[in-house]
Structure formats: C-alpha cells, structure tokens
Design goal:
By secondary structure, the protein is an alpha/beta fold. It has one domain (21-246): 3-Layer(aba) Sandwich (Rossmann fold). Helices cover 32% and strands 27% of the residues. It has six helices and ten strands. The chain has helices at 28-40, 74-86, 136-148, 169-177, 187-197, 223-243, and strands spanning 21-25, 44-48, 51-56, 65-69, 91-100, 110-119, 153-161, 182-184, 200-210, 217-218. The protein has a five-stranded mixed beta barrel with strand order 5-8-7-6-9. Helix 2 (74-86) packs parallel to helix 5.
Length: 249
C-alpha cells in the first residue's frame, strides 16, 4: 500500500491554466532571452517560485504556448515541473546544456537524451518502472524537426549529477564506456517526475564543454556556441507556437 503524501501539487486560486505544450529552459540565459521574445508577442508573466512563467494564449489556429525557467539543479527543476503539470502542462521540451563524455559529441552539437543515469537525490523519491526516460514520440518528433531544419543531432543516455565540481576522470571514463554520452544536472529527475505524472517530456541539450579530453575544454562562453544555442531554442519555441496543441501528436 502506497504511503499517504502530505503535500500534493495543485493549481491555486488565480493561477493560470497552461496550454498543453511549452518549453522549460533550465539555464538563466536562455530563459531570459526567450522570455523577452515571447513577451513581445503578448505573453503574460506569472509567478513561479524562483523561476519565470510566461503564457502566450492561443487563437483560432494555435493552442498557445508557455515558457518556464530557469531552474538549475534537480530539486528546483522537479519542484517547478510539478507545478507546471498541476497547471495543465502535458508536453514539455526541456532546453539546456550538457557536458560531453565522448569524442562523438563536440561543443555545439545537439543531444536528445533517451534515458538518464541518476546521481541526483530527487528521482529516487518517484516510484517508476525502469529508468527515467524521455517520451519516445516527442523525442522522435524533435529528431524529425532537426533533420528537416538541416541540423544534426544525436540520441543517447546522460548522467545526471548534483555535484558538477565532483565529476572525476574515472567516472567520465566509466560512464563513457557504458555508452553514456553526456552529463547534466536535471534530466533524470525531470524525466522521473514526467513518467510518474504521465506527461510527455523530452530534452534538447547543446554540448557546452568536453570532459573526455585530458584537459577540460569549456566552450559555453564562445560566440559561436551562444549563437547556435539561440538559433536552436528560438526555433523550437517558434515550432511550438506554430503547431499549438498538435505539438508532438
């Protein structure tokens, strides 16, 4: 028999009812510039913990879109995701960065995570069957979108950790040997929440740094990387706006 949960996420009086589809930007930079763009289109801003929530209502040709973020780290990302689901979110694309564990992925490459190996403390609180994984139909839709846009992408598992300053050379080698391609701080927790709550969630990561080399190779400050990040995530937001509630179906 399942234990009784004391606090359940819910929509409170005065809070918005969200469109089904939206973006969740875990990093402050993407959340800020995408939010500014959506605000120019008439999106309303709402309170969402330490994050931001913008909602662009639908019209006769669209079901609308929401944008949430930032929420760095598994606990905050899971807390924010729970609230979005309580407000009506059903199909969510997570936008973020990851480190590469493999020479197969270089800075600026696009990775669509398939499942997550958890070294964070949040996902274990969600009783799900199997590994925390992305929605296959939604991930396939993203892969088709990138192919049509002429952008190469890879699919594969990621390692999610709470301790980026404790990533060791041994762990990078070990997990890369198990075909884990990247490392991030949120995915496995968010995938566990999504599976537990029966909503569709997939992620799009830009490779921000290379951990597999003898010397750490960060690339997230380069103008080329930042320009591609904006290109990819702005395009995803436009895709959801265009597709409305048909996104991912």
């Amino acid at each position: 028999m399942a234990e009784e949960i004391i606090i359940n996420p819910r929509r409170e009086k005065g809070e918005p009812i969200l469109p089904a589809a939206g973006l969740f930007c875990v990093n402050p930079g993407e959340a800020r510039y995408l939010g500014a763009g959506l605000a120019k289109l008439g999106a309303a801003r709402h309170f969402l913990f330490n994050s931001n929530l913008l909602v662009l209502p639908g019209n006769s040709g669209s079901g609308g879109v929401f944008l949430a973020g930032p929420a760095v780290g598994a606990p905050m990302a899971a807390l924010t995701l729970e609230k979005l689901i309580a407000l009506g979110a059903e199909r969510i694309i997570v936008c973020g960065w990851c480190g590469s564990l493999s020479p197969e992925l270089r800075t600026g490459d696009i990775l669509l995570p398939t499942w997550g190996f958890s070294e964070e403390g949040t996902s274990g609180h969600y009783p799900i069957q199997g590994r925390p994984a992305s929605s296959e139909p939604l991930r396939d839709d993203l892969a088709r979108y990138f192919r049509a846009a002429g952008l190469a992408c890879r699919e594969g598992p990621v390692w999610t950790t709470d301790a980026p300053y404790r990533e060791t050379r041994g762990k990078v080698s070990e997990y890369a040997g198990k075909s884990i391609l990247g490392v991030d701080m949120e995915f496995s927790a968010m995938a566990a929440v999504a599976t537990y709550r029966s909503i569709d969630l997939a992620a799009v990561f830009l490779v921000s740094d290379q951990l597999w080399q003898r010397s750490w190779r960060p690339g997230y400050k380069s103008k080329v990387f930042l320009a591609k990040t904006r290109q990819v995530f702005t395009g995803l937001l436009a895709k959801i706006i265009d597709n409305g509630n048909d996104h991912g179906r």
